[in-house]
Amino acid sequence: MHIRGEGKTTSILGLYVNDLSCTGEDPDEIEVIKKRTTTEFEMTGFGIQPFYLGIEVTQQETYITIKHLGYARKVLLQFRMSECNPIVSNGAKRMAS
Question: Which residues pair with 58 in a beta bridge?
């Protein structure tokens, strides 16, 4: 992970094996990072990422949603619980209201 800038120009660049993610508040700063990265390294697909490290990422104008459904399914299969029925717990009810 590399953090660059301060305040509104702060950008975060994360790299894990062959997954690269760049985020920040200033679009101009993100463009500078993209240009530097693509001139230094052979890069493709520098756009919005629907998945990062197995996590589904959905980006909207005012918020970002992340889901780890793939991991949850893997755990359920591993413990032979994929056919179990889901229930709503009290904590989930409180969060919904």
Answer: 65
pLDDT tens string, the chain, 97 residues long: the values are: 888 888 888 988 888 777 778 888 888 988 888 888 888 888 776 777 777 777 888 888 888 888 888 888 888 999 999 888 877 777 655 555 5
Spatial contact of 57 and 66, defined as CB atoms under 8 Å apart: yes
Q: Is 90 exposed, middle or buried (0-12, 13-18, 19+ CB in 10 A)?
A: exposed
Yes or no: say if 56 and 66 are a contact pair by the CB < 8 Å rule. Answer: yes
Spell out the residues 6+ positions from residue 8 whose beta carbon is closer than 8 angstroms to its own.
25, 26
Residue closest to 72 by CA, chosen among 89, 56, 50: 56
